[in-house]
Amino acid sequence: MFEPLIPVAKALAVVRLDAYGSLDPAQQLAACEQLARLEARVKAHQLAAARAADASKAAKSVGATSTGAALANSFGGDPSAAARLLNQAKKVKPGSATEEALAQGEVSLGQAELIADKLEALPDGATEAQREGCETQLLDDATKLSLKDLGRRADRISDTFADADDVDAAEDEIVRNREAEARKKSYFWMADRKDGTYKGEFVIPEAQAEMLKNALEALNAPQVKHDDPAAAVYDAPPTYGQQLAEAFCTFIEHIPGGGLPQTAGVGVTVSVTIELKSLIDGLKAGTLTTGCRVSASEVRRMACEQAILPMVFGGEPLPLDCGREKRLFNRAQRRAAEARDGGCTFPGCSRPPSWCVGHHARKTWAAGGTTDLRDMVLICPHHHRIVHAQDWDIVFADDGHPEYIPPASIDPRRRPVRNHRFRADQAA
Known about the structure:
With 428 residues, this protein is of the alpha+beta class. Helices cover 44% and strands 11% of the residues. It is built from 15 helices and eleven strands. A hairpin with a 4-residue loop joins strand 4 and strand 5. Helix 3 packs across helix 4 (79-91) and helix 6 (109-120) packs parallel to helix 8. The longest helix is centred in the N-terminal third of the chain and has 31 residues, at 25-55. Residues 406-428 are annotated as: Disordered.
């Protein structure tokens, strides 16, 4: 054992693992930062030791085939991690300002590795003084920027010594090459799990991934409040992953079919076939054009949201209606409802109008409901699903605002509840 490290190990052993529980929140966060900086300092020594062991071919002394194998055999048993450590040791140059910053706990290993990579990518014509200037600037930036932003800053680090036009051209080339590589690495697959769900995986370029991420997070926020009466449908609060999955489904349902490439001159639209009596009574599932079976409540919900085109049959092999135009509320009605409701009208929900649909409140369109403003309420996709699945009733109070009557399973007395969204233009 290397004796100078013994006191370090002993000093850490003095700290009990349960000691952090007795700290106040500020102290706990401070301890996390201290430990992260301590980890960085240890990593600097680990890189230096691995680098020295590789240079001296120490693996031969223990009969190992490589330095990576020797490191993996000595602790951890992970050849991949050992190889990664050696690669990092080669990137972070010994005696460099980056290595010193890592050893002082001023930057993390991830930051040090990124800086080393970017310095290596500088133009061949960069002088030693220019390289040192870039390194100094990036080490300073690392104290203020996230790792992702540090990478973006590093793409333009040559602006510390080069002409602005040259820097712009160099950065554009870096980004173009990165985009080309990203497209090569991209893939998508999905497979039927035969249990009513699909699973899949994808790798896509950063720009499109962030567009998707922003869309899903917008759909997932603001969160429905904890006093949401519909929370009773969950055995436990949905996880973040479940929330994003529901947001993804909502996103898919909002993709406009008219904007997609046509097949045989017809826009890409998913239709559902269902008997009129089943659509009204909610007793029988429908069938999508893909063959997928969908519950009657889901058919009604998706028809309201224009996610599918209902093809309703009355027991005869001829469709009675293929998406009746008067089923949908028009733009003027929509704008008036937005002004009146201010967003989802379900009690406790704070979703804005932009992600709400128009719902036939008193009687569904399938049951003969009218497409009039006085019968329209705004409701978000999540609560639209709840209303159809649980048979909530909707009435209008004397002041013209909708109130929801929960099913007896949630409130045996079925007392009306409403969304008490504050509206400055309607405040007394």
